[in-house]
Amino acid sequence: MLLKTVLLLALVAQVLVLENGLLRKPPMGWLAWERFRCNIDCNEDPKNCISEELFMEMADRLAQDGWRELGYVYLNIDDCWIGGRDAKGNLVPDRKRFPHGIAFLADYAHSLGLKLGIYEDLGNFTCMGYPGTTLDKVVQDAQTFAEWKVDMLKLDGCYSSPQERAEGYPKMAAALNATGRPIAFSCSWPAYEGGLPPKVNYTLLADICNLWRNFDDIQDSWRSVLSILDWFVTHQDVLQPVAGPGHWNDPDVLLIGNFGLSFEQARAQMALWTVLAAPLLMSTDLRTISAQNIDILQNPLMIKINQDPLGIQGRRILKEKSYIEVYLRPLVNEASAIVFFSRRTDMPYHYHSSLARLNFSSSVVYEAQDVYTGEIISGLQDKTNFTVIINPSGVVMWYLYPISKLGIPQQ
Ligand SMILES: *[C@@H]1O[C@H](CO)[C@@H](O)[C@H](O)[C@H]1NC(C)=O
Ligand SMILES: *[C@@H]1O[C@H](CO)[C@@H](O)[C@H](O)[C@H]1NC(C)=O
Ligand SMILES: *[C@@H]1O[C@H](CO)[C@@H](O)[C@H](O)[C@H]1NC(C)=O
Ligand SMILES: *[C@@H]1O[C@H](CO)[C@@H](O)[C@H](O)[C@H]1NC(C)=O
Ligand SMILES: *[C@@H]1O[C@H](CO)[C@@H](O)[C@H](O)[C@H]1NC(C)=O
């Protein structure tokens, strides 16, 4: 009994010292899962199967097509890379699909100025049935990832019990820290506990994880985007305060460039994920993505807003009977991002509003830049009436900033 108490205290002491200084801004990059899933048939589909070739080709695109310079630096492997364990119990990749091993891929990513993310699952198996990290393997697997020079770990939660997760996620955080290598830690833990207190302790998560998946996997459809958005908005009073520099809610990857979203819906996902301070992890084929979708993902003002140093997650502040919703994210230097979002299904809607209606202060003159068109709307005072025209399932997004206080000239 005494021994048990001592062990428990040791665990708690470890948990309190895990701040790793990583991901002060939401991570940006590419993750294989949504687009490429567990496609392991390299005979039938050699260009799209989960293999080192796929990751090297995506790394080349990230480095050569302007993504890296904008901050899209993570190249993240997901499920279905594991071949098994060797005689010493160390994880090894599938030898046919990853013939040069994961350390080679990490070196390749680093040589291009990128970072490599890997996937494992705290439990008997990964979700797709590959060997998982059981509690007795946590330290060993953390050491393996560090030896390979991996930069991020997404730890899924299939095939584990709530007790195993409660022990295993803090244990992995401590094990990653003990390797001495900075490895960002993405925890799927809350998604397996319903995403809400009291089953989920977000204070604890923020201590041990850099980001966490709270809710269901995204699928390639607008319906899936809306179900995730609805869940995050319904629970925004719980979720909004727990996000911040180094610890983010993760509503899952961007679908932009795939098959399920229209142009308007792709722009809407990008804008909404940005006000939610979500990770910008693309899951699309960067070899064939269209110029139109590249424009959405490479919008410099959008990325600046997503990466705002305050790291405050936005909220839905208005839900109109007209099926227009307004989202607001506070930014550094008293600026804000505002998203006007239409859930209508008829035609472009003329939405009339004013900053007073959005509770902005009466003593300041603002200017807004439309994030997608670049248009400047100047001289906005609280009572100024404005109209934004929002397409069905689309957004208008403003970057709003003060230009002067009334009566006080601009500095
Ligand atoms: C994991 O495997 C062990 C040993 O076979 C078994 O007792 C346990 O029930 C399994 N756990 C889950 C959650 O499947
Ligand atoms: C481990 O934790 C300590 C204490 O929080 C921190 O200073 C250090 O940077 C961490 N190291 C790594 C590699 O995460
Ligand atoms: C949540 O975790 C924190 C940090 O470990 C702890 O101090 C707090 O007591 C926990 N809260 C609950 C309700 O368990
Ligand atoms: C504006 O403030 C009032 C009073 O605090 C509040 O009831 C209302 O919900 C706020 N509206 C918006 C759009 O934030
Ligand atoms: C703005 O619109 C409201 C409602 O339509 C109207 O009452 C008000 O006079 C208008 N304000 C200005 C400054 O035009």
Automatic annotation (TrEMBL):
It is found in: Lysosome. GO terms for cellular component: lysosome; membrane. PROSITE patterns: ALPHA_GALACTOSIDASE. Removes terminal alpha-N-acetylgalactosamine residues from glycolipids and glycopeptides. Required for the breakdown of glycolipids. SUPFAM superfamilies: (Trans)glycosidases, Glycosyl hydrolase domain. GO terms for biological process: carbohydrate catabolic process; glycolipid catabolic process; glycoside catabolic process; oligosaccharide metabolic process. Residues 1-17 form the signal peptide. It comes from Capra hircus. It catalyses: a neolactoside IV(3)-alpha-GalNAc,IV(2)-alpha-Fuc-nLc4Cer(d18:0) + H2O = a neolactoside IV(2)-alpha-Fuc-nLc4Cer(d18:0) + N-acetyl-alpha-D-galactosamine; a neolactoside IV(3)-alpha-GalNAc,IV(2)-alpha-Fuc-nLc4Cer(d18:1(4E)) + H2O = a neolactoside IV(2)-alpha-Fuc-nLc4Cer(d18:1(4E)) + N-acetyl-alpha-D-galactosamine; Cleavage of non-reducing alpha-(1->3)-N-acetylgalactosamine residues from human blood group A and AB mucin glycoproteins, Forssman hapten and blood group A lacto series glycolipids; a globoside IV3GalNAc-Gb4Cer + H2O = N-acetyl-alpha-D-galactosamine + a globoside Gb4Cer. Keywords: Disulfide bond, Glycoprotein, Glycosidase, Hydrolase, Lipid metabolism, Lysosome, Signal. Pfam families: Melibiase_2 (PF16499), Melibiase_2_C (PF17450). Belongs to the glycosyl hydrolase 27 family. GO terms for molecular function: alpha-galactosidase activity; alpha-N-acetylgalactosaminidase activity; protein homodimerization activity. It is an enzyme of class 3 (hydrolase). The lineage of its organism: Eukaryota, Metazoa, Chordata, Craniata, Vertebrata. Its main location: other. Residues 311-394 form the Alpha galactosidase A C-terminal domain. Homodimer. Its EC number is 3.2.1.-. This is Alpha-galactosidase.
